Please model this.
Amino acid sequence: MTKQNLFLLIGFAVMLLIGAGMLLIYNNNVYENPKDKLFNETVELTDELVLSTIPHMSGNSVNFEMISKRWVARNQKGQKIGVVYQGVIKNDFNLTGSGLDYGYMEILIGVSEDKKVSVEPIHIYQSDWVIVGIQKYLLDFYTNVNYLDVLNIPSFDADIVAGVTNNPATVSTDAIKLMVLNVLYREFPELLAIDPLEEIYGSGYFMETVEDFETTEHIVRKRTVLRAGEVVGYVYDLQGEGEYFNATDSIVLEVYFNLDNEIVEILLPEDKYNHSKGTFRNRIVEYVKEFKGLTLQELTAAVDGPLGNDIATGSSNSKALVDMLLKAFVNEVPDAGVILNALELIYGEGAILEDDATFVPTAHVIKQRNVKIDNNVVGYVYDLKGEGFYFNNTDSIVVEVYFNQDDEIVKILLPEESYNHTKTPPTYRPRVVDYVEVYIGYTLDDLTAAVDSDLGNDIASGTSNTRGLIDILLKALVSEVG
Model:
């Protein structure tokens, strides 16, 4: 053998070794078992926990979505890297040739220690024209996704190949999302505590029923939304009955507004939703989101238009009831749909503020404004401003003191944009807001004595510096104006 041939043989052998090594590496990183695919490594499932027993299934049995088992996933070193759940779905969409007269899906749902979610199918026995769409849905939306992002995964039409139906084929994919959410609620209970209204109205909001509100045929309650003692919105509860499948029952809509009279949220409380639930209710939940941002004046036209028709497909009876309630709301709401702002709540509809050009500011009273309705003065407001110490800082706050024609205090507000004392933790400012409420009903003549008493001391505990500044400002109002 020549030296040249020897080198060629050696080179060929080296290439074979490299190729074998690459193939070995490749095979070690391509996982066939669904449980391994969830974490992209070989895992062992331990600590099996049976959560529910899968019932007998047949073409006549009840449909269900069920989380049946939970395991701990461990890597080859025995370290916990996540948890795995088994999900089972039974429905009516059977796969021709499968030997089953019902639809059946089995999936594994993995949640890693770093809160990433993946879903792998075990069996997908569904109508043949949606199988590819379901596989695409799992691949696109449930591959190592952050657990919080699952909340925003949209409804998905699985009929992406055949175009068999004009209606969106979302029942199977919606059921998968529902099971994944149930897993996340078990693993992260704090998700159940997420309040969508906090993003709208702010932390610490609360609601008060308007006791003197006169209910109508479909408007059963009105509430005021407050935060830190200030009105930030309104809620109307609508209720009505309508048909669904072969029954008739009621649902309740809660329609939330901001101070610009825009719809900021529409909720359908599940305990008061007596139509078909699960996927069918989810479609209605998505449908009503289409009306967010609209005013009452725009609502009827939006309901009568094509807005959201594709979303509510398959839930047409419930959608019709929602549409009826929204249109009835426009017709039945008092004052032709006018929602009062914060000033009107104090003084009445049509109240406006006008600066008093004749007022001369003092050391602490920086502005006087008159409250007018139909050009008649019905009250007045003094804006107070001062600086004071809080923690290791000094800064200012503004206090707005509202009076009626009898010179009684009817409201004291602390505008958040002009409140430069402690706002975190979020309990501090609300305590001060609650504190100033104790002076409602007092006049300038008896205000100083009220401030010097122990009135409200227990309410403002922990905020003594800010409370002291407010006391100074209220007493200054008496001495500088009264």
Observations:
- The chain has four domains: 1-30, 34-192, 201-337, 344-480.
- Residues 390 and 466 are 6 Å apart (CA to CA).
- The first strand starts at residue 44 and ends at 50.
- The longest helix spans residues 3-29.
